[in-house]
Amino acid sequence: MSSSTHPSIQTLELGEQWFFEKDPATFPGQIFGLQVARVLHHTKSPFQDILVFESTDYGNVLVLNGIIQCTERDEFAYQELISHTPLMAHSNPKNVLIIGGGDCGVAREVGKHIETLESVTMVEIDALVIELAKKYFPNMTTFVEHPKFDLIIDDGFKFLKETTKKYDVIITDSSDPEGPAVEFFREGYFNLLSNALADDGIVIMQSSENIWLNLPYIKSLNVTAKKVFPNVLFSQCYMPSYTGGQLGLLIASKNAKLDLKRPQRIFDSETEMKLFKYYSSEIHEASFVLPTWAKNVLS
Questions:
Q1: Which residues form the active site (predicted)?
Q2: Which member of 71, 236, 262, 287 has the lowest number of beta carbons within 10 Å of its beta carbon?
């Protein structure tokens, strides 16, 4: 095999180009691959390596530091679950904060609640990711021009340290827990989230891990979160473009009595079918149901 245009893209003997996601630390002993139709963009911003390619079967694909962030084929699953789970578990959310989320997919989903929201603030450190999303993933950036949407190009930690505003829902859509992003998965970050959260507020973040491959890490993350929040749960999202086909979400609240597993607001089935492709009130509850062995470890 020979390398072509990007370290993670290899040309096989028949001339096919394949992108391979290999992360020995997180997913030892396995790799995930997508066939490449053509490379659309490759650059290094001040913060990360950014690759966008057109795949043969998954549409356009965004890769940061060698890890797939989203594909046009299945991005809606993650974006919907991480957004609507906290928004529907809250009885009356008004102010939403997104940390990260440069592909703007979470903002798009939060925007589906805009009639009842007062503000949506997104803090993303890398402006280039947003610009590339507008160009190559236009269906994900449909909310960024809305008057209630406030985009801040800044470091999420810095913003949380300085803000005095309290948010009803805080969504952390960060990269995997490697390099600088590892700070998003430590107790100090959970304390910052707690300080910026309203008393009945809800936080959610991708735990970036798979119960089949990283259960000890997931347990460690839950233990860390419980040092700050009395109410912490783990849910899971299924989508084929993430290694192992499954991604975990950590959701927490200051309110120990709030049942995060049950939506406080429910749309009728016709509205759900109009607004969502993955999320529903049934999926909301089902996402928290874990296999017995995983449930035993996490409990």
A1: 173
A2: 262
pLDDT at 152: 98
The verdict on 177 and 132 lying in the same domain is yes
Task: Identify whether residues 228 and 206 lie together within a single domain.
Answer: yes
Catalytic residue set = 173
Q: In terms of domains, do 106 and 93 share one?
A: yes
Contact residues for 125 (Cβ-Cβ < 8 A; gap 6+): 47, 100, 153, 154, 155, 156
pLDDT mean values, one per 10 residues, the chain (299 residues) = 68 87 84 96 96 98 95 98 98 98 98 97 98 98 97 96 98 73 79 97 88 89 95 96 92 97 94 96 97 92
| 46 shares its domain with 84 | no
- Please provide the distance, in angstroms rounded to a whole number, between the alpha carbons at the two ends of the chain: 45
Q: Cα 90 from chain centroid?
A: 19
The CATH code of the domain that includes 65 is 2.30.140.10
Among 70, 85, 110, the domain boundary falls at 70
Domain that holds residue 30: 2-70
CB 63 within 8 A of CB 8: yes
Query: How many domains does the chain divide into?
Result: 2
pLDDT of res. 184: 72
Of all residues in the chain, what percent are helix, strand and coil, respectively (each to 5)?
A: 35, 30, 35
Whole-angstrom Cα distance, residue 108 to residue 143? 5
Residue 177, pLDDT score: 56
Q: Are residues 183 and 216 in the same domain?
A: yes
Residue given tokens 């396995």 in the structure block: 30
